[in-house]
Amino acid sequence: MPSDSAVQALANDTFLRALMREPTDYTPVWLMRQAGRYLPEYNATRARAGSFLKLAQNPALATEVTLQPLARFPLDAAILFSDILTVPDAMGLGLEFTAGEGPSFARPVRTEADVARLAVPDIDATLGYVTDAVREIRKALTVGGVQRVPLIGFSGSPFTLACYMVEGRGSSDFRTIKTMLYSQPEWLHQILKVNADAVIAYLNAQIEAGAQAVMIFDTWGGVLADGAYQAFSLAYIERIVAGLIREREGRRVPCIAFTKGGGLWLEALAASGVDALGLDWTVDPAAARQRVGDKVALQGSLDPNVLFAPPETIRAQARALLDRYGAAPGHVFNLGHGISQFTPPEHAGALVTEVHEYSRQQRAGR
């Protein structure tokens, strides 16, 4: 990998330039969860690995699945194949993935003693497989000294991680963590402080290993009440952003924050220090641009379920969203959440092609 002072040659840096609100020839596109179960080649690799966790913990296989969508579609970025729950797993909570049930923790954080035992993990010792994967992916993306597209690293937000840590698994009502929030807020703040410091160390390790942009997934921040969101989610996102490495290999390392259900707080998120905001499908990108001005780039907002429609409808929806944003700099096309496992791959391909073709026409004034 290049030294800090060297600039890695990028064949396509459109995604990074868009995140920095620089003019681009077209709107770059990548898809949240673009390496996943909707691709038959991914399912074959996962079967070979034996389980999702074994796949994520094998740098060679994680590299393989990270590159699979790029072999199918002309995407403008790769995203590290991993899972947000690797961080609490590294804290010793006993992560398990059960078929049909999703992730769970054998040792959830429920008592004051549980909270007191939490500590920032040694990233090299516990999550070295992730940074090894980052290095391998960068190497695989580079041919003849030129890298095809940038690599995105990521982590869950402190509050989203805490939801799984306290609930012990996914939840429909978040009753356990909200009970802690209102009855023992000091416990939750301590969990969030540890999580934030762990995420800072984790994302910085990814950046040092070669991630060229990072994203904070605040998947469950939107379940919080106004006021609670600022205190228990946003404040810790701000803490992370302030602690990140922001330049590497002679370039800015952009940071994207995405709070699902966070449309109410776009202005506050835009002031958090991030370079870009992810929008879910409830947020109009034109209104979002008016609200945040030119403080940040915007990413996302297409309903993932659009991809179940016929290709001509998908293309029309893509054009409509691009028209809503306009040809101004600072737009990354993406979904408003992760792509569904039931999405026909050719429908994703139709979306990517239409975004590239139509946005080029926009830039050309046609």
From TrEMBL:
One of its GO terms (cellular component) is cytosol. It catalyses: uroporphyrinogen III + 4 H(+) = coproporphyrinogen III + 4 CO2. Coiled coil: none annotated. GO terms for molecular function: uroporphyrinogen decarboxylase activity. Residues 28-37, 152-168 form the Uroporphyrinogen decarboxylase (URO-D) domain. InterPro entries: UROD/MetE-like_sf, Uroporphyrinogen_deCO2ase_HemE, Uroporphyrinogen_deCOase. Its EC number is 4.1.1.37. It is an enzyme of class 4 (lyase). Its main location: cytoplasm. Homodimer. This is Uroporphyrinogen decarboxylase. It comes from Chitinasiproducens palmae. The lineage of its organism: Bacteria, Pseudomonadati, Pseudomonadota, Betaproteobacteria, Burkholderiales. The gene is hemE.
